[in-house]
Amino acid sequence: MTLWNLHFLNARHAVTRHMAEIRGAAKQAVALTGQHADLPRFDLVIRALPGGGIPDWGVGGHAPSPGIIEVTLNPDRFSEEHLIRTLVHEMHHLIRWDGPGYGKSLGAALVSEGLAGHFVLQVLGGRPDPWDAVRPASVVARQAMNEWARLDYDHARWFFGRGDLRKWTGYGLGHRLIAEHLTSSPEDDAASLALAPADAFRPAMRRLLATEGEEGETGNEGGES
After folding, report:
1. Strand (E) positions, the chain?
2. DSSP count for the chain of H helices, then E strands
3. Residues 205 and 148 in one domain
4. Cα-Cα-Cα-Cα dihedral of 122, 158, 107, 66, to 10°?
5. What's the CATH number where 24 sits?
6. pLDDT at 221
């Protein structure tokens, strides 16, 4: 059984009204994840921020280092379902931290996010989360392949839309990358791939490029290049 600690940053009682639901959601996320993968020991930190989290979800997660998940909640938009999906996503990052880590290159980040998104589908089912459902133009995949090993990539540009790329481009591309790998290796799943090195997915990126070609070059959204 996984040992984990739940910490509320709640000196001003911002999350008091949701504490029981949060505890229940966290226990459910741990139990469901444990059916597919072994979770390492971890601390879960919950903080409230009015207007915080992902818009329309009211929750945002982050696994900044081994053994830690941090969640920011908007108390006025609390959703147990969204919290569970967020926690399952971050729990895959948690597992990966004890292997190759999240990664410092663009390719590693695409793989880490793509695997976490597919892990949510493996554990919870349903449709891909909104950021995973983004379909970048094929020219963006070409750019990502060319910059795969770059350590100085702009994470905010690739994943949060701070620049010329459409918001959540990196999440969508990572999701498609892992889908391509799973198509050719059906014996794998997001759990079994949790500790796989990022470079193991380069062939999948090449196949993705070959499949998509350069179509859509004139139909870029959000100024993609």
Report:
1. 4-9, 42-48, 59-65, 68-73
2. 7, 4
3. yes
4. -60
5. 3.30.160
6. 37
pLDDT at 216 exceeding the cut of 90: no
Distance, in Å, from the CA atom of 46 to the CA atom of 83, rounded to the nearest integer, reads 11
Which residues sit opposite 9 in a β-bridge? 47
pLDDT of amino acid 137: 79
The whole domain housing 49 covers 4-97
Number of domains in the chain: 2
Residues 16 and 56 in one domain: yes
Mean pLDDT of all residues in 151-159? 97
Q: What is the dihedral of CA 171, 158, 183, 201, to 10 degrees?
A: -130
Looking at residues 159-178, what average pLDDT do you find? 95
Whether 224 is covered by a domain: the verdict is: no
| Under 8 Å between Cβ of 191 and 37 | yes
The answer on 88 and 71 residing in a single domain is: yes
How would you class 50 by CB atoms within 10 Å of its CB: exposed for 0-12, middle for 13-18, buried for 19 or more?
exposed
Sheet containing strand 59-65, edge to edge, reads 4-9, 42-48, 68-73, 59-65
**Do 57 and 159 belong to one domain?**
no
| Residue linked to tokens 């597992």 | 95
Least confident span in 26-35, 81-90, 115-124, 129-138: 129-138
- Residue 166 identity (one-letter amino acid): R
